[in-house]
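User: Predict the structure for this protein chain, please.
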Amino acid sequence: MREGPGVWPPPPLVVGGLLLLAYLAGWAVPLPVHRPLAGAGITLAILSLAWVFWALAVMRRAGTDPRPFTPDTQFVGKGPFRFGRNPIYLGFLGIAAGMALWWGQGWGWLALLLAFLWLDRAAVRKEEAYLRGRFPASYPPYAAKVRRWI
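Assistant: Here is the predicted structure, written as structure tokens:
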């Protein structure tokens, strides 16, 4: 079986690690940038988590493994993938933004920026190159129609 796109470490670990570091940094060296917006932050994080689960469910129903270091067996362009090519990563960023809103700390916003940069450069670009080669008939037209993020 062909290798997957080779994204390592797993993106949830990278985003989660950045959020943990931001939380600890905010505790050790507070960097308030706005008042904590717990209600808005928790709401955004929960909606983003639901978005991630929807995308994962669509991939599972299609019979493909959502882990970015395993080979894809099916091209998926429906469900949340109609709105953006990377709905799972977008959901991770939404969760990070929710945490940043909740904490009100500049560290949370820095973690969000670093997570976006890592996902965009280290994960998405590898996955896009992989998908172009793995699904040459279906991925390029899809990528031409659907935006990378939203």
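The chain has five helices and no strands.
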